[in-house]
Design goal:
about 200 residues; mainly alpha; Cytochrome Bc1 Complex, Chain D, domain 2; two-stranded antiparallel ribbon; 8 helices; 4 strands; about 5% strand; binds heme C; transmembrane; Cyt_c-like_dom_sf; heme; Cytochrome c
């Protein structure tokens, strides 16, 4: 029996109890209690008849890192991280975007060496970029690049390398991140990636 059905059954029993009290007991005090019980039980039955809408946290997709065989596998995990757990797409666009608050990452994997990409993610304040995309004096970007390896995003090294592999791949570069190196990073055995919740699928 489902939880709701069980609660409905309890509600019905409570209402039934109230009805029995009203039918068979003459003492005024108990009749009042019976009435209150019927009203409360009735309310809970109405509440329980409203369809339940569960709002669940996003489904967690896990990747078994030992199943990653090719740099392309790595890049496709990196792509998922980029758009979900890594939150990169909140700030960055790939290609021009009107609402971009941060550098456009189009072609970034070809422009920057993997070591520099790694530094951009883990030491974002080491080298600050200015926004030249407007007239006048270049300004700092309105947003700040977060430390990707620290809270709240806190990607593991394996996840960061996957994202770098993705940045290289989407820039049309050969992926220079080696799968063996990533496997050697950390012995967690598996990577956890919070996937984006798809509407309609709890
Ligand atoms: C809160 C907004 C924000 C988020 C989230 C964010 N970034 Fe950034 N990022 C920035 C800003 C602002 C800059 C430019 C300023 C600077 O260099 O510090 C930047 C710079 C960069 C650069 C250097 C760009 C260049 O031209 O050299 C890279 C690479 C980068 N981000 C990648 C990422 C990746 C990958 C993620 C996700 C794992 C990410 N960012 C998440 C705001 C963000």
């Amino acid at each position: 029996m489902s939880e709701v059905a069980l609660l409905q059954l309890i509600g019905l029993i409570v209402v039934g109890l109230g009805v029995l009290i009203l039918l068979f007991i003459k003492a005024k005090f108990f009749r009042v209690i019976g009435f209150v019980v019927i009203v409360l039980g009735g309310f809970s039955l109405i509440a329980l008849s409203v369809p339940q809408m569960a709002s669940l946290p996003p489904a967690i997709e896990t990747f078994d890192i030992t199943q990653v065989k090719t740099p392309d596998d790595l890049a496709s995990i990196g792509q998922k991280i980029f758009f979900s757990k890594g939150q990169c797409a909140l700030c960055h666009s790939i290609g021009p975007s009107e609402s971009a608050r941060c550098p456009d990452l189009n072609g970034i994997g070809a422009k920057l060496a993997p070591e520099f990409l790694y530094e951009s993610l883990t030491q974002p304040q080491a080298y600050i970029y200015l926004d030249f995309r407007h007239g006048g004096v270049p300004e700092e970007y309105p947003a700040r690049m977060p430390y990707i390896n620290k809270n709240p995003i806190a990607l593991s090294n394996q996840e960061i390398y996957s994202v770098i592999a993705f940045l290289q791949k989407m820039s049309g570069e050969p992926v220079s991140i080696k799968v063996e190196d990533v496997l050697r990073e950390g012995n967690e055995g598996e990577m956890k990636v919070a996937s984006v919740a798809v509407h309609g699928t709890p």
